[in-house]
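RECORD TYPE: inverse folding
INPUT: structure tokens
STRUCTURE:
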């Protein structure tokens, strides 16, 4: 509900359930390959913070709401530019180091894909 998320008015949103801070804009850099998604975090200074990173799978899944689709986010969420498409997570696939995980923000499925392919990026800070 409305109290789950705190929009700080500076491009950042805190999820009060997990304590994680996310960029309000869920599509800062367009679709990128995985290495670019990792590298671009270093230059990201949304809200004046410089410790943004790709979320792991558990973190990105924590934003989702089971019965919602397109996107799989809680009703009334404060985020903008959410793509009903695949978002990279930081986790490399154990059985295939050339691939990393992604979450489909439209349908909620998590899978893996070659790191050279382009998916969307949504940065987080805190946690881990």
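DESIGNED SEQUENCE:
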């Amino acid at each position: 509900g409305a109290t789950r998320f705190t929009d700080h008015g500076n491009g950042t949103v805190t999820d009060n359930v997990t304590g994680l801070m996310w960029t309000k804009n869920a599509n800062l850099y367009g679709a990128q390959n995985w290495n670019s998604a990792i590298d671009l975090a270093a230059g990201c200074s949304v809200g004046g913070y410089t410790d943004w990173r790709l979320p792991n799978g558990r973190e990105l899944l924590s934003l989702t709401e089971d019965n919602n689709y397109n996107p799989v986010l809680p009703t009334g969420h404060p985020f903008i530019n959410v793509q009903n498409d695949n978002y990279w997570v930081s986790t490399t696939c154990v059985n295939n180091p050339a691939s990393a995980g992604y979450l489909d923000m439209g349908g909620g499925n998590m899978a893996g894909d070659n790191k050279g392919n382009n998916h969307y990026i949504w940065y987080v800070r805190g946690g881990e």
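NOTES: The mean pLDDT is 96.
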